[in-house]
Amino acid sequence: MDLITFDSGEIVRKYQEQDRPDLYHVCLATGDSGADAVHLYDQKDMLGEIYVGPYLTFQPELSFTLIQDGVAGYALAALDTSSFETTLSKEWWPLILEKYSSRSPENFNDREKNLYSYIQNPPLRPKKFVNQYPSHLHIDLLEKAQGRGIGKAMMLLVLETLREQGSKGVHLGMGAKNSRAFTFYTKLGFTLLDKNDQEWTMGLAL
Ligand SMILES: CC(C)(COP(=O)(O)OP(=O)(O)OC[C@H]1O[C@@H](n2cnc3c(N)ncnc32)[C@H](O)[C@@H]1OP(=O)(O)O)[C@@H](O)C(=O)NCCC(=O)NCCS
Fold first, then answer.
1. Using only C-alpha atoms, what is the Rg of the chain?
2. Long-range contacts of 162-168, Cβ-Cβ distance < 8 Å, separation of 24 or more
3. 152: Cβ below 6 Å to ligand 1?
4. Whether the CB of 183 sits within 6 Å of ligand 1
5. CATH number for 10
6. Ligand 1 within 6 A of 147 CB?
7. Number of domain units in the chain
8. Measured between alpha carbons, how far is 175 from 164 in angstroms, rounded to an integer?
9. CA distance 126 to 203
10. Residue 185 burial by CB count (10 A; 0-12/13-18/19+): exposed, middle or buried?
11. Alpha-carbon gap, residue 108 to 33, rounded angstroms
């Protein structure tokens, strides 16, 4: 069932398992602070397995796919960040770690080594944000789909779905260099909760 239909022909629907490889590609194609990161990684699925796979696997009902001549974007959320993290520590990270441990991580490039460290020791989101904003989300659209109101419509869909499921607030992390995303989230009502050199955290009460 299509959840959103745009006049220009794009649709947003619930995630389907066949979308997974293409959604991992969207993650890579937007993985350098919103810009294409395909040339930066030899391990092409690694970013997707960290930032997309967990949601598709454990929160498929909060995973939405954009279709624009094929898969062109996603919006993903976790309703309860704490229990999501607990599930991933038992059922996701061990599998991903096993996969990459068997691929000679000493030969990874520096970016891949950073991701490998992340998989070895996945950071937990600070309690101070999770208590007030228990849900979190990600959104990424391929360049061809950007700047046409699609991101905003997908965010409103995710926020409404989280609200319906009883969430009292949502937070997100964004790359410190992604000023475009900061403007985008601010226009949707998010406020800055915290920032460091790498990542800014924003939140919205629902
Ligand atoms: C960030 C992103 C999700 C925004 O989605 P989008 O479809 O391009 O944005 P929209 O067209 O829906 O714009 C919504 C609002 O944000 C504003 N906005 C979007 N891009 C902007 C930009 N580059 N500069 C200033 N404002 C911008 C729009 O003007 C619009 O404002 P309005 O509601 O007042 O008209 C999308 O561009 C994207 O996926 N970028 C690459 C990946 C990325 O950076 N993801 C976020 C990681 S944290």
1. 16
2. 162/62, 162/77, 162/79, 162/135, 162/137, 162/206, 163/206, 165/62, 165/79, 166/79, 167/79, 167/134, 167/135, 167/206, 168/132, 168/133, 168/134, 168/205, 168/206
3. yes
4. yes
5. 3.40.630.30
6. yes
7. 1
8. 29
9. 13
10. buried
11. 21
| Test site for ligand 1: of 180, 202, 204, most ligand atoms within 8 A of the Cβ | 180
pLDDT tens-digit readout, 97-145: 999 999 999 999 999 999 999 999 999 999 999 999 999 999 999 999 9
Cβ atoms 61, 157 nearer than 8 A: no
Q: Which of 25, 26, 146, 184 to mutate to test the pocket of ligand 1 (most atoms within 8 A of CB)?
A: 184
| pLDDT value of residue 1 | 78
Residue 143 alpha carbon to ligand 1 centre in Å: 11
The atom of ligand 1 lying closest to the CA of 178 is: 44
Q: Tell whether ligand 1 has an atom less than 6 A from the beta carbon of residue 151.
A: yes
Q: What is the pLDDT of residue 33?
A: 87
User: Domain range spanning residue 66?
Assistant: 2-205
Cα–Cα nearest to 165, from 59, 54, 35, 10: 59
Model confidence at 53, pLDDT cuts 50, 70, 90, reads very high
Across 8-22, average pLDDT: 97
Ligand 1 proximity of 146 Cβ (cutoff 6 Å): yes
